[in-house]
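Good day; I would like, with your permission, to put a structural problem before you. What I wish to show you is a protein chain and, alongside it, a tokenised description of its three-dimensional fold. I would ask you to consider whether the tokens describe a fold that such a sequence might reasonably adopt. You will find the record immediately after this paragraph:
***
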Amino acid sequence: MERAIDLTSTEGWRTLEAELPENFQELAKEHKVLEVQYGPAKITSVSDLLRLVAYSDGRDGSFRSDATAQPGVTWTGA
């Protein structure tokens, strides 16, 4: 039986991370998940990236729409 995890809570994130491989941080480094092509990275941890992806996916939105929905943020990417 599936159960819902509250990803807005710290406990929910701990539950989610407990389901990942123990070495998920190292795997992300190995696969260069956090490397950026241009400029400095705004997201510097695998956990933060995972939260962003889960948040965006849960909203059925895109990263572009999520970013531009914030006050004072404009999209300058291609």
The helical segments are 10-18, 24-30, 46-58, 63-68.
